[in-house]
Structure formats: C-alpha cells, structure tokens
Amino acid sequence: MIRLPGRCQYADHAEGEAVDDFWSNNGIRRAAAAPVVKGPAPAGPVVTGPAPAGPVPAGPVPVRAPARQLARQDRIIAVAMRHFAERGYEDARIEEIAREAGVAKGAVFGYFASKAGLFLAAYQAAARSFSSYLEAPPDVCEQGFFAVITYWLSRTPHLVHEDWVPYRVTLLGNYCASLQLRREITQFLLREDPYGTQAFVRFGVDRGEIRRDIDAKMIVSLVDWLMDRCQDAIVTEELDPGLFGSAAQSPHMRDLRVQQFVELLRSAIGTRSVAGEGRSS
Prior knowledge:
2 domains, mainly alpha, Tetracycline Repressor, domain 2, about 60% helix
C-alpha cells in the first residue's frame, strides 16, 4: 500500500496536530524554544569549553507513522473504497472523501500523493479482503484442486450481495484503470499474490492433479486470468442482467457454465488421469 513518509506540508493546519505530524514523521525533532534572558551583555570574551572527545551519542530515533496516522489512513481508504464503488473512478471526489473521513483534503494528498495513488491503495485493500483459494473449507480442499475451483465459482454471486464494495473496486481496477495505474496493479498482484494462487497451484501439483510439463508460472497466470474473467462475467450478469444475453441466466444455467468452465480448465492443465476422470464424470 502506498504510504508517504509524512504529512503533506500543505495540509490544513487547523486539523489536530497536523504540523506536529509533519515534523515528527519526517524524522525532524522540534527543539523547545530557549528562554530569553533579559539583562546587560556579559563583560569580556565568552569562554567556551573544549569540544567533547569521541562521537556524540545519538538521540532517540523518532517514531515514524504512529498508530493514529495508520488509523487515519485506513479510515480514508475505507471511505474511498465506497466512493469509488458507488461513483466510479472519474466521479469520485477527493474533497468529499476527505470530508467524510474527517481529514483535510491536503492530508489525503499527503498520504497518497494523488487520486490514482488513493485508488491504488483502495484496490490493494479490496484485494486483500478476499479469501485465498486454500481458505476454502477443509472438506472441499480434501477433494482437490478442481473442487476448490468449483467451490469459489459457485460462491461468486455472494460477492454481489455481501462484498460488492471491494469487488466493484477490483472491477474498476481491472477494466477502467489507466495504463500506468494498471501497471501498478499488476506489479502489486505479482508481488503479493493476494489470492494465494502460487500456493494453490503447488497444492495441485503436489496432489498429482496439475501437469508438471508446463511452467508453473504460466499455470498461475492462466488460473488468475481465467478465474477473473469467469467470475466477472457471473457478477456482471447479476449486476446488469441481460448484458451477456437476451435474458438473465437462471441458477441452473449458471451452475452449468461453472461445470463447463472447470472441465475446460481441467483439460488444459490437469494430468491425464485427472482429465480422464473429469470426462467420465
């Protein structure tokens, strides 16, 4: 997540402790003002003592990003996620997000640098909020790789009704982001692997369900891309019935499409024995 090292120097000073936050978070210790002593100047030259021998001991290291700032950033991100989900990227307004989060507009730019930086932070938070593949119920994991795929696809409509805010944010990032922002999102997904796809593919390989003659990174990319598109089609049909056809699909038709998708994936990356089992079933 993008977090700048300190508060923006243009933040509204009326917000509580904004100036102190700026100094402390940039590693600058503000010295207390020395008392002013009035009176005649001392007669004669000022005698100073010898310089201390050896290195001067360093003072305490200033603490960066205190808890209240992290809490403030999280509050901004939570508000921003809802605004982006409800209004889209272009129509979301930083000043409205700042007002609802209880911070100055300058503070938002101080933390995230730009609107794109704030959206990237919202996207990352949304992606991290979803379960990873291997967080499926233990009895599902025991059935194997393709049973886990089926389980998560069958639960896709749940995203519309209960997790629609983070899911809409990820949809915006996947389809509506600029090229530069999309590059940042791709780097984040490769770096953090928030859905645990790499571990999931290793799980399938170790169980003998996934082919070993194909590069594992290619299989990871294939699973990520195809699962994203399949889930997006299901969810978009829920949000906008008829977008992919003349009428909304029935639950039976949706389940059939999931079965067909899993069979296609099994035939592409499954071992011979697993692919044969899928066709026989």
